[in-house]
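Just wondering, can you check both lines?
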Amino acid sequence: MGQGFFGYNPPKFITDAAKDALDKVDCNQYAPTKGRPRLKKAIAKAYSPLFGRDIDPDTEVVITTGANEGMLSAFMGFIEPGEEVVIFEPFFDQYISNIEMAGGVIRYVPLQPPKNGGSEVSSAGDWTVNMEALEKAINSKTKMIVLNTPHNPVGKIFSKSELQAIGDLCVQRNLIILSDEVYDRLPFTTFTRIATLSPAIAARTLTVGSAGKNFYCTGWRVGYLIGPANLIHYVAAAHTRICFSSVSPLQEAAAVGFEKAEELGFWEQSRKEMKGKVERFCAVFDELGLPYSKPDGGYFVLANFARVKLPEDYKFPPHVAERPRDYKLAWFLIMEMGLAAIPPTEFYTKENMWMAEDWLRFAVCKEDDVLEGAKERLRGLRKYMS
């Protein structure tokens, strides 16, 4: 329930495609640096209706070794030493090392948690952007803003009005937008892509996607970026130097996935199943009276454990004792309940860890019997609750 990998296999039409690809000579050799043509064409065809324009598979799509390497390529392609990148807290922790590896300086803008989040169930959409703080974080050295929607770990889908305000600010200040949308096929509410809001915003937006997230195969490491040709050019150049090309047979299988997913009803089935897993798991928090943040999308749930009172005489190892309360909660859950969760202060700067010290993040992309087992273990917390 900790790390966000799937507890089940990809659908059969995907795994069959992977097996078939291994029998093709060309699929067992280097893929073109920017990706196998079939996959680029499949992505362009799948996303053109969603973007409201025709995407050129040859110039506006690049395939990367997972979305993470794709983002590293974007940072390496555009960020010069000393230039600044704005990210929202809480953040996917890989952003930090990727930006710093390129020599970038990070400016943090915290999402404001719901005021009632510690006492009642709230919506992930209630985590809000402070536009005044965002504007103050931007200066003459700022080069890029990183978005993540649906968001990890909050599960927030940024609203159209929030994205419009952010996009307009980026146009005004001439900033690149790196929009991490790897959970884009798992929205539970209206999902707006910032690249669709205006031609001026689209002209500076790189959208990041993940076949691994889309098709339950995070170990395949097949990611992609979509954007204007003049931006994709530099991402592809950096990608070439980082790893040259990405795994060829799995690109071919991912292409089949994008070609068949819509006609097989896979996208809608995937969304409904994940929403069902969220509801199934969160039922235990309703039962225990523990507040949680209902995700707008993705497969992470944040639950608030302020009501759980850890024993005063409990012996934590030094490396846990010196960390915020969420680390102690996570350690206690593992050792006493046999249940793993992620302490979300790991996704914050030290100055803002206080916002998350009562929360824990759970990944619900597991088999239903695993979710039921996790719920039963969480019921063991009753004796520690006030």
User: Anything to note?
Assistant: The mean pLDDT is 97. The first strand starts at residue 61 and ends at 64. Residues 188 and 297 are 5 Å apart (CA to CA).
